[in-house]
Amino acid sequence: MDTSQRQTQIERELTAFRTRQSDCDDAPPSVRVATEHIHAHLFDPELTVKRLRNRLGLTDSMFSPRFRLYHGRTPGRYIRHLRMEAAKRLLREFDDLPIADVAFLVGYEHYRTFARVFKRATEQAPKAFRRNAEFD
Hints:
This protein has helices at residues 3-19, 29-40, 49-56, 60-71, 75-93, 99-105, 111-122, 126-133. With 136 residues, it is an all-alpha fold. The mean pLDDT is 90.
C-alpha cells in the first residue's frame, strides 16, 4: 500500500470514528448540540470544554451535570475517552504509524501529554499497548 492510500485509509478510519453519534435523542438541546459539536471537532486540539461552553453559551453549573446524566461522563472525560478509543484503534490497525503521529491525529499537539493521558486511561504506555495488541 502506498503512502497516499495509507493516508486515505487512516482518514477514513478517523472520520468513521468521529461521526459515530451517541444515542442522546432524548437529551436536552444543549446536550445534543454539544455532543454534535464534540463529534464534529473531536480531533481538533483547540477543542476544550471551556471553548465548547463559550461557543454554545452554556454555563458549567448547568451544562456539566446534564451532559453527565446522558453520557455518564463529564464533557472533558467524554472527549478524552473518545480520543483514547480512537488512539487505541490507530495503534492496533496501523502498527507502523509513529506514536507521535497517532497523538497528533487524535487531537494532542504534544506527545508527552498524549502519553500521560493514554497511560492514565489504559494503564499502559502507548508503545506497550501496541506491543500487547500484536498478541491479541
